[in-house]
Amino acid sequence: MDSTNGFSKVNGNKDQESIIKKRNVWQRRSKMEKILLAVTGILLLLVIILFVISVIQSRSDKEYCTTPACVTIAANVINFMDQSVDPCEDFYQYACGGWIKANPLPENERDWDRYEELTKTNNHILKYVLGMLQ
Q1: What mean pLDDT value characterizes the chain?
Q2: HSE-CB of 75 using CA atoms within 13 angstroms
Q3: What are the transmembrane regions (predicted)?
């Protein structure tokens, strides 16, 4: 198949050659398809622009909680960490090592974690409150 200036020669048999004009992809589209493609392109561009704008605004509008409760909780989280440990080597020890050091396993407990500690504290509070009611 030879190609010259937008035309292709197609060999049917030895005696006969027909020349067929090549049409590119855009020329083969109907008017409605062209309009739909243009609208789709514009909508895609708008979505990308809106996404970029929302990302930029979300980065600049970050509000940090600075109430006493938030600061106290953040301090507790930092105190529960063991920053002397490399988090890539032992993440559990890095994240919880400070709490483990500050809260050793009680003698009468088989396991001990923050939930056990909170449960025990809540039970003491409930016993105290219920004892006052009687």
Answers
A1: 81
A2: 7
A3: 35-56
